[in-house]
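Q: Could you predict the 3D structure of Isopentenyl phosphate kinase?
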Amino acid sequence: MELNLSESWSRSIRCIVKLGGAAITRKNELETIHDENLEIVACQLRQAMIEGSAPSKVIGMDWSKKPGSSQISCHVDELGDHESTEFSRFVVVHGAGSFGHFQASRSGVHKGGLEKPIVKAGFVATRISVTSLNLEIVRALAREGIPTIGMSPFPCGWSTSKRDVASADLSTVAKSIHSGFVPVLHGDAVLDNILGCTILSGDVIIRHLAEHLKPEYVVFLTDVLGVYDRPPSEPDAVLLKEIAVEEDGGWKVVNPVLEHTDKKVETSVAAHDTTGGMETKISEAAMIAKLGIDVYIVKAATTHSQRALNGELRDVVPEDWLGTVIRFSK
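A: Sure. Here are the predicted structure tokens for Isopentenyl phosphate kinase:
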């Protein structure tokens, strides 16, 4: 059952953020988190979300025992005198990176066929992997004092039909935001009406959330500066600073002016990536932009990502900002 959000409710959502798997994990090292990037991203999110003056001290919310320590880090006594921090309403969605993709690609979960033992086993293995990453991201944000709640699509009622969202109960997401929490969703293995099962990518989740929650803007944090006219590892790759989406859903590059403006942007997808990589990201971002919502694709853990998260690019994009803006051509 979909939640029918009122217009006033919808306008209260400030931003949906996608933490790209390649930015928060070491994608060539199986199930390895990029700790430094994740720590910076968590700090930047906190700075972007705080309304008013920031408190002098961060009171962390991860009271679990940390690896290598016998003690639980807890600051309960300090909370009594601590002023409540007001956060603007954000939703976080993250990709899997080096978590989940290996299990999904080896077993063929994304292709469906739950009747096959290898697919069923892979479905379970994929969910174990991606939910373990979700927990670590929730913990990293909680250590920055952000009241995060992990939400996995599969148990929250998300399902697909040929890999597109068929149903999603957003009531839990909405109630959590309304209660002052920050939902953290992720790409997940889900049931599919046609295929039996598949992988629901974080990019598709963001598009669905944007359609219903109507945030002011959406930020994709990636491991590269933005969208290029070809894989960024190739020589002479050009960063596309602005892409305009037309009424019919088509899009064109408006900054910089390319020599061959009708040339399709080339993308690369890692062999183990079961969600489509940058091509899916651009397609989903274009559909979000068509709703009148600006989308910023930018490298995580940089000054450019902080400015995007802060919402500083909504009127005029500064010349010194490096990233890609995708917006509706009015």
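Q: Anything worth pointing out?
A: The two ends are 33 Å apart (CA to CA).
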